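Aim 2, interim progress. The first record below pairs a target sequence with its structure tokens.
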Amino acid sequence: MGAMSPAHWLIVVLVFALFFGAKRLPDAARSLGRSMRIFKTEVQEMHDKPDSDPADSGDPPVRELPSPDNAGRVAEAKPILRDSLRA
């Protein structure tokens, strides 16, 4: 199982030409190249950009809500009596 020889690559190209048509292959390759170029520039910008402090960004700071004193407790429900509904 070695590398693909030029004959193998020729067969792969012919199969793609049969499936997609000779006219659509250059457009597909061009759009793939553009996508790869955009991806590379975005990855490079992520590596070049230093980690910023959230206080430096223009976004407002995130505040935590204060916890209520009775957090986790549920008020006890009173049963409804049928006789009290009729009256």
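The second target in this work package is listed in the same format:
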Amino acid sequence: MASFARLAGRAVTGAGVLALSPVLGLAALAGTAMVGARPMVFAVCGLAAFASVFFLGLLLVVPRPGVTWGRWLRALVVLGVEAAVVWQVSTATLRPSPAQAPPAKVAGQREWRLTTGSELAYVRRAPKRVTRAEPVVFLHGGPGVADLRADAAFYGRLAADGFQVYVYDQLGAGRSARLTDPTGYGLTRDVADLEAIRRTVGAERLNLVARGHGAQVAAAYLAGHPDRVARALLYSPAGLSPARAADRPASSALLGPGGEPDPRTLVLSTLLRVEPGAAHDFAGDRELDAHLALVRRGSPHPCPAPGDEGPVSRDEGLGGYVGLAGRPAPAGLRRDLAGVRAPVLIVKGACDEQSWSAAADYRRALPTARLAYVPDDAGYLSALRAFLTDRPVTPYEGDTPPPGYRGPA
């Protein structure tokens, strides 16, 4: 009985050590990356730590026989399992995933080279005769999910009302330039880019149209430059308080389409938490873009954006690192929004991926904000045109969603 208890104890301890081996391997990798080691160095250090601890766990799990030939057999089993597992994990960790090719240019695409240092791809749509002084600038969502082709086609319709319309891919997304250091992304940079765009196009004020996480950019710009906004429309706005950097890499975006982690994505997730620059060195922009595109195809959203052409088009606009970077809100954001005087319209659709409570939060934070509820794309475009041209828009006064609303509360 005592012998059996010892064997059971060794087996349980060994199983615990085996389970702990990937954690210690990732810890060694992260620690080496934080001191500035190159990708191959911190990857090898992490794999060595994993292999050592895994080997110790196998020695504890596999029983130790009393006869000589049994000891040789045990050694062969341990070494064989160790070699097979370490080979598989090393291959999966070090082999880059397929990269996504840079998206082709869309019709009418141009590039801004801004004073902030950002190089942004954009499309301008304009009528033969401009009759509205303030141009419309569209801010896509994600963050890091752009669709220059479809958004230019949909929002370009506003040119028929006399507006110049600018649709652009934010820094780090789609056809715009990427940063080598992912910590450079965030609302502060996006707001600085938007102000540089205003100066570049020579507009005194802008009409902002934002979707999803683009509403965070619009709100931060309103807070920092309230006198530079004529009107702002926020469609399906994401939460006013952006997620912390530590929250984003833990999302399902770093898992496989079936929700299963693999060694390379676990390494990338760990590095994004502790050393984003090392994560970028380990797996470049196009590799992460391709991975996120695969995840998106595996879990399509039931509520497409207005003018959405489907996953093929939207995959071209993905920006992996900007989407996983932290986006802290500017200090005093809500205080500054309380002083905004520009008209703001918040629009919610019947099928909406963002929560109703997020829209209600914007309505409370912005004293001039009204809420409108639209059943479909046609209703949204009609409300958008009416708001921008100073025509009446039927407000929704309720605090709770109306019957038929299919989004989160």
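The CA atoms of residues 253 and 292 lie 6 Å apart. This observation will shape the mutagenesis plan for the next reporting period.
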